[in-house]
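Quick one: structure tokens for this chain, please?
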Amino acid sequence: MVTRLKPKTPRPRAQLRGTAPSLTDKAYRRLEEMIVTLELAPGSVVSETALSRDLGIGRTPIREALQRLAREKLIVVLPRRGIMVSEVNVRSQLRLLEVRREVERLLARTAARRANDIVRRRFREIADGMEAAARANDDMTFMRLDREFNLLEVEGAQNEFAAGAMTLMHGLSRRFWYIHYKQVADMPLTARQHADIARAIAAGDEKRAAAAVDALMDYIEEFTRATVDADT
């Protein structure tokens, strides 16, 4: 007699999102925020040992987090010299935006079509939070909601190839914004534009989601080009 094994029931995505982060994830999130908010400035040199001591996290998770940050071009590993936080380059940022526009439009459309009810509800909450941050001109709340918005958009779209491309652009985009927004950007406007995308995804409106992405990308490109004049 052959015993048939019951197929394992996959865990819902919402449950997966709720699992506790690993030490590597914690190290990555903390280091990514330190780089994006310039606590670790462009061009600065860091070491695994110092970061492990300062963050109270073992060297193996720190090393794994740094490998991920290197793939995202937020750090550069220099043989025999250490680890350097990558410099910022406006021309590279404009090339990044060419790709980001297409990928983010795809993610917004597919998230509007595929997201489950839990993800849609969280998008509505993020929209509320973005609008509150816009009213209060609260940059740190905006930055943190922006990071969650990006991750949730990837989850809702359920396309691992687009997710891989977009993940490589998140940190660089957020750091460039943080460096220059006080000089030339309108943070409340940008927060409201993110809220527009979030509400369109929550409503399942693919066309409106794509149009809202284009409006945001138009503004971010304008902002990026304006940094050249601000720095001269």
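DSSP finds ten helices and three strands in the chain.
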